[in-house]
Amino acid sequence: MVRKNNFKWGLFIVVICSLFIACTKVEINYNVEGKLQSKIMYKGGKKNGPAVFYYNNGKKSLEANYKNDELEGKLVRYYSTGDIETEETYKNGLLDGVSVSYNEINAIVLKVEYKEGKRDGIFQQFYPEGSLYIDGSYKNDQIDGQWHYYNFDGYEVATAHFKDGAGLFVAYDTEGNKIREVEYKNSEINGKEIYYHTDGSVEKIVEHKDGKIVEIEE
Prior knowledge:
Elements: H1 2-23, E1 24-30, E2 36-43, E3 46-54, E4 60-67, E5 70-71, E6 73-78, E7 84-91, E8 94-95, E9 97-102, E10 108-115, E11 118-126, E12 132-139, E13 142-143, E14 145-150, E15 156-163, E16 166-172, E17 178-185, E18 188-196, E19 202-209, E20 212-217
């Protein structure tokens, strides 16, 4: 009797393992030149698990993870040299977390924070050698809060304050004189863009609508 039960349990385990193996597979793809192009894990007919894509030189071009055909977790893009180009995090197929981009000398050039697929949080852009260029933030995919802009030597050359995508950008020369003023709405230039002479007089006024120039007054 015990042997019979053991046989049933053994058969049950074999059947379960067979079903699991049948439902889970790694799809390997090659390009027309016969070189490895990708390895993608499937389960239940959907992408589930790691996926890796390759350059012709054999180095990885992208690593990601899927859950039920949607991106989930960390995604890394690479240059053909093997160095990291971008690091991102996904949740339910949407960007969620801080996305970091690097240039080909491994310096960070961009940091953008996302929440449920929208820019929400820090926004930082850097010069090619790694020094800070723009330091700002987004809220619900709109520019928001205090923004600071720096020249290559690290001096602040402009500031802006935004709320829900609207606000005013002001730029200064190295002597601290205001040289430019720009109105924003819906996270793009909308309204007047005013250029100033160093004595404070107006040099010209450019009128914008939805990011496009509609009139220039000189």
